[in-house]
Amino acid sequence: MNSRIWLKVGPVVGAVALSVLALSGCSQGTTAPAADTSSSSSEAAEPAAKATLATADSSLGTIVVDSAGMTLYVFDKDVADSGKSTCEGECLVKWPAVVAESDTPVVDGVTGTVGVITRTDGSKQVTLNGLPLYYWAGDAAAGDTTGQAVGDVWWVVAPNGDKIAG
Q: What is the distance of C-alpha 7 from the center of its chain?
């Protein structure tokens, strides 16, 4: 029971962070990326089902998206193959982790190496070429890339795992 309370209070679990974003109206008209907006926030498996990686055409070229078409990002402060994400706490409110239930996320069209890391909260975060993947809370719809180059450290990612700079 205590872990349920912690999950509701500390939105560091990807599914909870996404739910908090949807409920708090963090960005006008924004819905949480790839999250199930049902009233049950205790079902962490639901966002994992949407952690499938795919590709989509955008103004930046072909990019990596989730099964709902939401753009995925990498963070310059993360170190490839370190097994860690440097985005914790408040960072996760703006940049929710792409979470998975298993160590083998489903991939369609992505040619980079896909894996997972275990976050400090125990959730599994999807990686591409060893870099953790994130959503941007400011993306309101499939195909949005408004997180591109935020702070010159957040980047849309190409299917081969390269960040798309510029």
A: 18
pLDDT digit string, tens, across residues 27-43? 333 333 443 333 333 33
Q: How many domains does the chain fold into?
A: 1
Task: Report residue 161 as tokens.
Answer: 């795992």
Q: Number of H helices and number of E strands within the chain?
A: 4, 9
What distance lies between CA 122 and its chain's CA centroid?
Answer: 15
Q: How far apart are CA 87 and CA 134, in angstroms?
A: 9
Q: How far apart are CA 15 and CA 45, in angstroms?
A: 9
Q: Output the pTM of the full model.
A: 0.71
* Spatial contact of 128 and 81, defined as CB atoms under 8 Å apart: no
Give the tens place of pLDDT for each residue, 81-112: 999 999 999 999 999 999 997 889 999 999 99
Phi and psi angles of residue 54, each rounded to the nearest 5 degrees, phi first:
-140, -175
Residue 128 contacts residue 64 (beta carbons within 8 Å) = yes
Sequence letter at residue 106 = V
- The answer to whether 125 touches 132, Cβ cutoff 8 Å, is yes
| Contact (CB, 8 A) for 147 and 73 | yes
64 token code pair: 């990596």
User: What range does the domain containing 99 cover?
Assistant: 2-164
